[in-house]
Amino acid sequence: MLKLGEKQTLKVVKEVEFGLYLASENPKDPDERVMLPIKQKPENIKIGDLLAVFIYRDSQDRLIATTNEPLITIGKVARLRIVETSGIGAFLDWGLEKDLFLPFREQTRKINSGENINVALYIDKSDRLCATMKLYPYLATNSPYLPNANVTGEIYEISQNFGAFVAIDDKYSALIPAKEIYSELKVGDIVTARISAIKPDGKIDLAIREKAYLKIDENAERILLIITNEYGGTLPFSDKTATPDQIRTAFNMSKNDFKRAVGNLLKANKINILNGQINTSP
């Protein structure tokens, strides 16, 4: 059986002027063959020999074999260069003569010629090979990383409900949960984050902030500076009376981080709390 988008080993069954006909060793259909163009014919190849090839479609939509090495195979993710963009999609260099088509509907952000992007390879409803920037189903869940490891990846999709989806090393599935996002992120951003959890299915949760105890001093200084410069020394709420949204708006941090930093400032006698308000100490 010929497998579109995959590398496979086929047998040379016929030679003609313009190339070689290849077929699987035990074909269910004796007429199921694919052409390897004459310019790719290996030296000293003969009828009955086995040959490793990649199967795709040529410019006339016919199945064709190639001995060239594609940069991506079916169901895999790879970073490819954009050759050209148009109103219907983009064309990517994947190491073969015919560029790979990326439909407009499969793009998750605005892209430009010459840019390198992460895509997966799939077969569309018309039985053609296409690229997609929607990587979630194609990323691996068997990463070698352990909790608390620092990793780098690219954000490929953002959901208001779930958070930012990340491809670690352009390969592994990860998520920055919505509750962990305290700064503006966008698709295409490269982020360095800490693995906060690894789920039973192998998918990874990330925290883009450092561990809380490492951030306390930094957050405390920021809170003190904002109260002094933007609130005239008196914050009209405290860690106990403020809502998470109030804290996020004023300080761009979670309520837990805010409470830890406020506790740090109290111990250092840099603030006092009176009548539900935080005041900078004289």
Report on the structure:
This protein is mostly beta strands and 282 residues long. It contains 3 helices and 18 strands. Helix 1 crosses helix 3. The longest helix has 19 residues.
Tally of DSSP β-strands: 18
Strand order of the largest sheet: 3-2-1-4-5
**Distance between the first and last residues' Cα:** 81 Å
How much of the sequence lies in strands comes to 35-45%
* Protein structure class: mainly beta
Mean pLDDT: 89
Largest sheet descriptor: 5 strands, antiparallel
SSE run: EEEEEEEEEEEEEEEHEHHEE
If helices are DSSP runs of H or I spanning 4 or more residues, what is the number of helices? 3
- Over all CA atoms, what is the radius of gyration? 28 Å
Summarize this, please?
With 282 residues, the protein is mainly β.
Name the descriptors.
282 residues; mainly beta; five-stranded antiparallel beta sheet; 3 helices; 18 strands
Please give the structural blueprint.
Blueprint: E1 7-16, E2 19-23, E3 34-37, E4 50-57, E5 63-66, E6 77-85, E7 89-93, E8 100-103, E9 116-123, E10 129-132, E11 150-159, E12 163-168, E13 172-177, E14 190-198, E15 204-207, H1 212-230, E16 234-235, H2 244-251, H3 255-267, E17 271-274, E18 277-280
Parallel strand pairs: 13-15
Antiparallel strand pairs: 1-2, 1-4, 2-3, 4-5, 6-7, 6-9, 7-8, 9-10, 11-12, 11-14, 12-13, 14-15, 16-18, 17-18
Helix pairs in contact: 1-3
